[in-house]
User: Fold these one by one.
Assistant:
Number 1:
Amino acid sequence: MKGGAAQQLVRIVIGSAQLQGNLSLPENSTGVVLFAHGSGSSRHSPRNQYVAQALQEGGLGTLLIDLLTAAEEREDARNGRLRFDIELLAGRVTGASGWLATNPATAYLPVGYFGASTGAAAALLAAAEHPDNVRAVVSRGGRPDLAIPVLDRVKAPTLLIVGGADLPVIEMNQEALKYLGAEKRLEIVPGATHLFEEPGALEEVARLAREWLQRHVKPYTRR
């Protein structure tokens, strides 16, 4: 895969937390995708970086942000509690969306969410509570079942991507799919496990995500 857009380190203050992120904006970006990490991951996740690069090559900007502060990450590494605090993570996603709406370089761009693991539930909760913030959601190996109580309020077209060998997560996504009321789709990548480490699996995730987000995260056309 070719190199993506240059990265800019940004710091986003949300309440008492200062979060770090990597913002990349290709020339003539048609939108920007906010990545919500989960389950102990971060903006340095090689899988999410790979998908982000594919999106950049497709003309979409990306913001990969750590939803936890450094101190919170240390706490979570000890007890794993914060990665399942979906309301906390969703609040951070909403705050980062607000930053994108006021940052001069991104204020004019429509926004999509890409969530992984518990970050997918946070993205969907944020999308349900603030539907005007987001045009589309993609979940990779996510836990949308953790957001079932609000899924009927999600207005953004939602794509759920799961590995074919990730059987428990397939069941969780199939159950969540029933509750989504907007445009929705479940894609199962044959033979892939939870981290999509098999040959060609992550490439398929990137292709599916890019097609979905390119279709939905774009400026409205005037009639």
Number 2:
Amino acid sequence: MFGFVDETTIEVASGSGGRGAISFRREKYVPKGGPDGGDGGRGGDALFVVRRNLKTLSHLRAQRIFRAANGQPGAKRNRHGRDGEGVVVPVPPGTVIREASTGALIKDLGDDKEEWLFLSGGRGGKGNAHFKTSTHRTPRFAQPGEAGTTVQVRVEIHIIADVGFVGYPNAGKSTLLSVLTNANPKTGDYPFTTRIPNLGVLRVGDTERVLADIPGIIEGASHGAGLGLEFLKHIARTSVLAFLIDLSNDNFLEAFPVLRKELDTYSRELEKKDRLIVGTKTDLPESAERLAELGRAFPEERLVGVSALTRQGIDTLISELLRYGR
């Protein structure tokens, strides 16, 4: 069991075409029949297919080589060789495919139910029946099949969600996610409880929003500190970023600027996203005054105070979250 895997390297290969046949018609009353070598079959294609039921790349860690079948050679009596069976690489929504050596983007598979032809199989070789001419009636040659292609690629998941929860470790992200959705993330009163991204679905009537709880970000995460750098990529597709600020922390006013700086350092695109400040743990002493201070410090930002324990402010937060999404 590999657990959550969001990046791995695999080898993908299309099949080679079958060789053409060298054959001559030989029948009882036709001792010198012409060439009748058939064509080789086409090699199998290699495809990526997005499957919504997949959430990680653990299956690719278990099977690292995906190779399509080769085409079969042609046969006498102009019989065509069988085409090679293709190979399918199943991936979750939000998968990005890059060159293994350079990291260059090959394909962004953002939508579910998408099928993408990555490598075409090699063409089958022509049999000697194709090469008969008026001056060359007995060609004793045929084409070899076209070789398939083998490529090493790095496969990554960029989780697709409407709202990304970002914040310091132990800011209450996992607990709030469990209150708002059907998710059941691990929670605890210690840093870095969340070590993998957690997804949950907020449903209100016929409306849904996918919420993602990203492992805690600390100062320096954009340069590799803590767990944040590894998972910052998962908020790239969100429509809005919800910055969770722990009002029980004496340094609560410093959190929002630090978090914004880390996200901006990682990717300037994250700075352009809609955002919402969520002050957490409003059931604790002094939280009301600290929430007011937060509002005064950042008057241009949308602000909601909530308590996952007492559900204070949860309905207001839900209304805010429903304003965003696809």
Number 3:
Amino acid sequence: MAVGKVKVSIGTAAVLGLARVPMAVAPTTAYLMLGGRCLMNCAFCAQARDSRAAENSLSRVTWPEFELRGAILPRLVEAAAAGAIRRACLQVTAAGGVFEQALDIVRAVREMAAVPLDVAILPHDVEQVRQLVAAGADHIGFGLDAACARVFRQVKGGSWARSLALIGDTVRAFPGQAAVHLIVGLGETEREMVQRIQWAHDLGVTVGLFAFTPLRGTHLAGRPPPPLDVYRRMQAARWLIVHDLARADGMAFDALDRVIELPTASLPEAGTPFETSGCPDCNRPFYNEQPGGVMYNYPRPLTAEEALHAIVDMALPASG
């Protein structure tokens, strides 16, 4: 099924010359979105089944719609050739009939643009994963979001065991091509989040870390984002784990399951752990932040002052 219009993030639209908006930092990945209201009902998501948020929103970002072949792809080719876009990411809601459309988009992008393409989707099974990889997908992104079964039941629903099994099956069938999204601040403990990051890394799964962002019209609109010190500790723990400089079972936690000991001397002075994490060249500018507000994920290299502040912000709790 040939796809007509596709939504793109407003930042992507600006980079492609499809919209004029001021940008403090431009996205280095072209973000596309397929599907309408989701069949899932994730409590934090603007596209959830019962969400009252705007139809063209996802996280804090608006997503205008353009013709795929007539507008997006030709400009994507130009942006990739100029080095302004280095990756594309197709985000697919669990709406009816979208899988064949997703395959069409993957094939169309890979035929025209010299960029790797990731697909964030809820596949039914490994056969659908196989079809996406065969069509040219570089990574398959799983929105696991929750760090543990308890939080998964509270904010997502569905089967936790099936979700983990499908990720594991994908890794075994396509090593190095699975990614998971984890959201800090949904009600998990720091120990639970660190253990889930370790689980993913041990499987060979790329880990993208997000901060919970309250959105008007969603079930969790009244919940605050995670405290900055908590998020900084999770960013540091993730960086140490994925670089094999620490393991979750070697970290110390207090009675509240907060991380109280990390090998901070192993963290780079440049502040790299506090940049946006996930697939290469995915910087997601202001996906979790307001311009001028708290920077949970830096979409660019940190300044020396920002890197120093990020370390201080971690504020490891005193042991005992």
Number 4:
Amino acid sequence: MKKVLISSDLPQIAAELLKKEGFELSAWHLERPMTQVELMAETKKNNALLSLITDTIDEIFLNECRHLDFISQCGAGYDNIDLKEATRLKIPVANTPDAMSQATADIAFGLMIAVSRKMFYLHKTIAKGEWGYFRPKANLGIELRNKTLGVFGMGRIGTEMAKRCVGAFNMKIIYYNRTANPLAEKMLDARFADFETLLKESDVISVHSVLSAETRGIFNKAVFNKMKPTAIFINTSRGAIHHELDLIEALENARIWGAGLDVTNPEPMQAGNPLLSMENVAVLPHVGSGTIEARNEMAKSAAENIIEFYKSGRVSNILNPESLKSGKLALD
């Protein structure tokens, strides 16, 4: 009987599926994430790990737990995992890339609208008793219809965001990606652009890329200075992709018009962060996948990765397929 550690309090469907297939489970049920020491200690008792983005699965962890057959990440992002080291140690890693696309695209789309009409800020003025008389030139937003959306990372979530913008506001779509996305081009009349063109032409830039050495801190002072002064910056991917102090400066100096963030740098954001009091900013606490449907699907998919691996030695959502090339099968 294979033993699986579930590192967080996930929807019950994950445990139900794994138990049905005969796995022995242990799970972490405290409100806080495990420390790395706790995670290593518990993982050593198990054959597979069902992990979350809050788990630190670095070189130290992987070498301490090199016995692992498999890691299944509950989520699309995996920058908490040293994938290179896992591959070197022949530990297969999988994620759940399709489970949260709709929910996260909804958040990006909602933040864009909220920023364009100063919704978060205006809500706070009501709470402070500042809803006074009608002023025709006060608190004006900007319209999105027929504007240009620039997608930084045209994958599943970026494509869903673009669909919403085309359908609701007839926005033009340009995108920057590691490779061209012919499906998005055909379906949305999207245009592949280099990074400089994306910055120059976009009225809204929405970030949907993975966090990597190439994307870490890429949206910095120099980049914000190349955007339109009327542009909105949206990030629902990873906070480390933008330099937060540079973003604050760009907003304070009207280098860009507004920003909508579901991810911050660092996380959690401190209550005194100046972004929280700016008119043209909307910030959420990393809740892109925060729907009942998405979280259930994430848990289900993460469990199915483990089941598929132990049944066949292969996984549809594998991130490092080269880790399986040694001939080691899951059931060995």
